[in-house]
From TrEMBL:
Main localization (coarse): cytoplasm
Organism (species): Perkinsus marinus (strain ATCC 50983 / TXsc)
BP-aspect Gene Ontology terms: thiamine diphosphate metabolic process; thiamine metabolic process
Keyword annotations of the record: Acetylation, Cytoplasm, Hydrolase, Magnesium, Metal-binding
Name listed for the protein in its UniProt record: Thiamine-triphosphatase
């Protein structure tokens, strides 16, 4: 299984998750963007093996509405820079298969199942997408309401996304990420929401917080980004007991 960033990556995604203080503030923000350009229902299943090989590397494999996608940290020191998450995205069965099983034969699903990969999370999201432009760069504003199997409580989140060509190496990644982060900062300032938002958990982390404590432990071990999130969810004492940092055990 390949462990390096692949040339098959389609694009670099810099995404900032935000939550506004009230429904009124959210409605005011969205009304300034005009009507949504798209509404869609997203059916996502996330895959990994029993050893959680991908999660341990902060890599995320999903089947979305029948199409395979994979997120890989854009730079070697991790997927979190500043206030945003940064991933190179690999899209399509052929590209994902080339990344995970460069010499494998058969369908991606058959190779995954043969290696013990199974679905570990399932989400359904109702998404409204708005488009904006800042400093000549396109911004997608996605408003999601997600539900989980056998869980009646939905989870809502807003994501600001700027896309660019996939990064090649840390220097290139740093440059592209910084440029996209500056676009998001300027957009939030122009829209009057800078300093008025909080950073919520991602939909997947929210799912794990509710339904998969074991994988939360692995996330806490993976990197400081997830360790902070898990500390917020479960408390520092719980994290230190279940996922001590190297040298603490």
């Amino acid at each position: 299984m390949s462990a390096t960033t692949t040339a098959a990556a389609a694009r670099l995604e810099v995404e900032r998750k935000i939550a506004l203080g009230s429904a009124t503030e959210l409605a005011r923000f969205l009304s300034a963007l005009g009507p949504p350009v798209r509404r869609v229902v997203l059916h996502d299943t996330y895959w990994d093996d029993r050893k959680m090989t991908l999660v341990r590397q902060d890599q995320w494999l999903r089947l979305r509405n029948g199409g395979w996608e994979m997120k890989i940290p854009a730079i070697s020191r991790g997927s979190h820079t500043g206030s945003s998450s940064t991933y190179n995205e690999v899209e399509g069965e052929a590209s994902v298969k080339q990344f995970l099983f460069p010499s494998g034969e058969g369908t991606l699903r058959s190779l995954l199942e043969g290696d013990g990969f199974r679905v570990f999370a399932e989400l359904v999201s109702h998404r409204a997408t708005y488009h904006a432009v800042q400093d000549g760069r396109a911004i997608n504003v996605d408003v999601d309401s997600a539900t989980f199997p056998d869980d009646p409580v939905p989870y809502s989140i807003v994501e600001l996304e700027v896309l660019s060509e996939a990064s090649i190496g840390d220097d290139d990644g740093d440059t592209k990420v910084a440029a996209s982060e500056a676009v998001i900062d300027a957009f939030m300032e122009r829209m009057g929401i800078a300093g008025k938002t909080v950073r919520p958990r991602s939909k997947l982390v929210e799912y794990l917080a509710r339904h998969d404590e074991e994988r939360l432990v692995e996330l806490a071990k993976t990197c400081s980004k997830y360790r902070r999130i898990v500390c917020e969810l479960m408390g520092s004492d719980w994290v230190e007991e279940h996922a001590p940092e190297e040298g603490e055990a």
